[in-house]
Amino acid sequence: MVGKPLATIVSAGLSKFGRREGLYWRELFIEAATEAFDRCPNLDPRKDIKAIFVGHMGESYEHQGHTAPTITDWLGLTPVQGFRLESACASSGAALRCAVMAIASGLVDVVLVGGVEKMTHRSTAEVTEFLAMASDFPFEQWNGLTFPGLYALMATAHMHKYGTREEQLAMVAVKNHKNAAINPKAQFQRAITIEEVLKSRVIAWPLKLYDCSPITDGASCAILVRPELAKKFTDTPVHIIASAGATDKIGVYEREDLTTLLSARVASQEAYRMAGVEPKDIDVAEVHDCFTIAEIILYEDLGFCPKGYGGKFIEEGQPEVGGKIPVNTSGGLKAKGHPVGATGVAQLYEVYLQLTNQAGPRQVSGAEIGLTHNMGGSGASAFVHIYKRGD
Amino acid sequence: MVGKPLATIVSAGLSKFGRREGLYWRELFIEAATEAFDRCPNLDPRKDIKAIFVGHMGESYEHQGHTAPTITDWLGLTPVQGFRLESACASSGAALRCAVMAIASGLVDVVLVGGVEKMTHRSTAEVTEFLAMASDFPFEQWNGLTFPGLYALMATAHMHKYGTREEQLAMVAVKNHKNAAINPKAQFQRAITIEEVLKSRVIAWPLKLYDCSPITDGASCAILVRPELAKKFTDTPVHIIASAGATDKIGVYEREDLTTLLSARVASQEAYRMAGVEPKDIDVAEVHDCFTIAEIILYEDLGFCPKGYGGKFIEEGQPEVGGKIPVNTSGGLKAKGHPVGATGVAQLYEVYLQLTNQAGPRQVSGAEIGLTHNMGGSGASAFVHIYKRGD
Q1: Quick one: which of A63, A78, A340, B162 could link to B308 by a disulfide (CB 3.0–4.6 Å)?
Q2: pLDDT of residue B1
């Protein structure tokens, strides 16, 4: 039996992703929020919104913390209460989970949830340093281990244990670029070939440049309400029927097995239980493909295929649009782009479009149930949400 | 009629505040959590705790973000879900508000909430730079305005409009040092005189060194449960009967009146309404005295005295232990210390001790109702909670 809604999405917005020169992150957030407001003419933001929850990873990029009041101010929403969540690249997944709990508490009826990051104005070295704060300082950063290195450890372990091949990693990138090519908000709107991926320069073997998500500017936004109020705001509601989070050891060196992501397993199992659905019921999923190996491991840990079969799953085309479970129809982090704090709610945005039949040329026909998986760092945090098209 | 409990505190812990050399913030957090666990032998942390919420302002101090999984890992609580809240110096006030909503949602029964900051290993210039991230980058930081400067603007405006005097500011510092002198966890355990305050060096006139809260290392922790479950864990529960938050414009230059803090007014009025109590019912309060002028403005904006009478309120001894409303019996940020991310839940810790008759020589006799006010930056965010001694 499908679970009852915890909260309902009545609108969503997304800024164009990519290199957005000359803007502060607060301006990117306004772009995303404006789309969400325009899509929902029955919403009076100043009157209706009772709290905002925003995912924002790095205060260093613009030397600006205190994210929530910066946003309520620039959206003209003060004195409404606001919360900034940080959980590395899962920051807006965490914001979404808190927003869902806020609605479920009955203490607030209408909330704005979103995420934002402005990254491209800093050098690659600076971005690498800021992102590294999501890993363990004394035991990882101190030794020079960066995120491509951490995920390369997972990739080599997976290749060794399950025979996963570089070509299979490349297929994930090719699929996600193919999807992004028809997503007007994506950073990279062009298809690529397996050969291009394999020939791109090595970042941390076996991961090449095209196995890695890019540095991106962007913002995401959604409006959640108590399910009973949804009809006041929209004819096309999307219900959140499960919301779960989990953590794992911060240092990868502490984990027993590098080929699996504990946080994804725990959070997704909890979410399936809460939603009353199984992996086979998922019609469309956005998962955290920060590196191609992550998407392959996630096919397995989210239960889309048995453990060790992630490489085969992509090789057989099962996560393609038209396949068993279309994954990252937006282009994913890999090709839509990965403004870290914005990613969790950007995943929600794609699922929202799919479940309301607004995804245009990348629409998954008849999609009713969707899933998002947003991950922080090397998987030390994860948030999984399951969505159902409303009546 | 006093409101019904939203959540119940069954235990709390606080690290020693001050200069804590040779420790990472994660270790300070363990110190606070260990006290909370030891105080609550019926709690099995790994079995009972279903979520953690942690306030942490600055990832730059230790180059360590991804706060929540770092803590779940080091407390041995993985894979439990975790959330880091940042709202500048109100970070753990925000964490507390989210923890309360989580309990009220019915989705989790037992949560750990806390806050942490490790600051003293960095230079004063670095700390000033990191703290500045709580103010507006393009319009405040860029022009060299730091927090003593921002609060000095409020102080001069208050002196001009209401005749508040430097001696009255000094009296706040004297009172808080007097309280801290008998708080073994305080950073400054010694009394000071009005003359010492007035003769201390000017930081940003009229604020002298002794008008300013110090740079501090510390951590705070509490265990919240669904009210119905409290008796399983403790004989001395403390109920949270109101929880509210508000924001204000991020830039002080945008505000109409520098002598009042909108976020404190809005959040406290909402909290009093929710709790069904009035300011006169408050037996003990911890308020955000980052600078002495803040405490004076807060006497007014929290309704402890009429607008403009804050200076007179302290001069008459009304916020002293034994006065009308004892304020900052812990010593406050001024003398207990201000590890920014830890402060909100450290305020809760003092109220918890007071309402359970564990405050030792600084005990307010018969205290039943308490209030905490935690503020971010120059008041762009604030969280107010009201507490009631349980039966």
Answers
A1: B162
A2: 63
CA dihedral B356, B361, B362, B365 (to 10 degrees): 60
Domains of chain B: 7-122+216-237 (3.40.47.10), 135-214+239-389 (3.40.47.10)
Interface mutation target, options B24, B74, B83, chain A, most CBs of A under 10 Å: B83
Q: Return d(Cα A98, Cα A86) in angstroms, integer.
A: 12
Query: Which residues in chain A have their CB less than 8 angstroms from residue B248's CB?
Result: 69, 73, 78-79
- The Cβ of residue A263 has, within 10 Å, a number of other Cβ atoms equal to 29
Sign of CA dihedral A118, A122, A127, A130: negative
User: Coil, strand or helix: which one is B296?
Assistant: helix
Residues ≥6 apart with Cβ < 8 Å to B18: B186, B187, B216, B217, B218, B337
Strands (E), A56-210: 81-86, 110-117, 202-204, 207-208
Q: What is the pTM of this model?
A: 0.98
| Amino acid present at A266 | V
B117: helix, coil or strand? strand
Q: Is A121 known to be catalytic?
A: no
B380 with A69: Cβ contact below 8 A: yes
Q: Please, what is the end-to-end C-alpha distance for chain A in angstroms?
A: 16
Residues of chain A with pLDDT under 70: 1
What is the rounded average pLDDT of the residues B248-262? Answer: 96
- Helices B147-162 and B292-301 cross at an angle (nearest 10°) of 50
B186-227 pLDDT, tens digit per residue, is 999 999 999 999 999 999 999 999 999 999 999 999 999 999
Q: d(Cα A13, Cα A235) in Å, to the nearest integer?
A: 17
Given a cut of 90, whether residue B328 has pLDDT beyond it is yes
Average pLDDT along chain B: 97
B2 pLDDT tier (thresholds 50, 70, 90): confident
